Amino acid sequence: MKWGILSTGTIAKNFAQTAKQMPDVQVQAVASRSAGSAKAFAEAFAIPTAHDSYEALANDPNVDIVYVATPHSRHYEDMKLLIGAGKHVLCEKSFTTDAEQAKEIFALAKKKNVFVMEAFWTKFIPLYRQIEEILESGKLYTDAELRKLLSGHLCRCTGYENILRAVKKTMYRRLGLPMPTEPEA
Q1: Which of 19, 123, 6 has its CA nearest to residue 55?
Q2: N or C: which terminus of the chain has fewer CB atoms within 10 Å of its end residue's CB?
Q3: 27 by DSSP, 3-state: which?
């Protein structure tokens, strides 16, 4: 797939640097509201096309999917523009400013038959997947069982006690059980 990048800020630079390291990813175009910014970004990352408007990127026939790196207050309108033009979208977080906007974006994407997703990379790390499996199991795990199940992942991350507490709290809530009171330290 041929990618476009919407905006030229720091997070867009991070995306472009990462994309350059991926052999199957081709960044075809970048857009900025400033022609100079788009041109400088394109030159810095060897991107063939620099657009001086978001509309030009949305209408670029050589772009299949667009990474939206604009400020989050613009995500809703930018995604509507891109989806309306038939582009797939990977949008930086936060996806939209409220749930109603998100629902509208997903409905529009479904109507236009395009893929849209928030760039929430932590969803794909093994710890997150393990937590999802635990919570979806419907089982009530003890603290010792949770520690054992998550031990391979938690040793590599900071704040593991907070993660354990959050998993436990969510597990109890999903099962409709009152959270036990933790003993005073």
Answers
A1: 6
A2: C
A3: strand
Number of helices (H) and strands (E) in the chain: give both, helices first.
8, 6
Instruction: Just list the catalytic residues.
Output: 93
* Inter-residue contact 42 to 50 (CB < 8 Å): yes
Torsion 154-156-162-163 (CA) sign = negative
Residues with Cβ within 8 Å of 17's Cβ and at least 6 positions away in sequence, in order, are 45
pTM above 0.90, yes or no: no
30-57 pLDDT per residue, tens: 999 999 999 999 999 999 999 999 999 9
CA distance 128 to 126: 5
DSSP code at position 46: T
Residue 2, beta-bridge partner list: 26
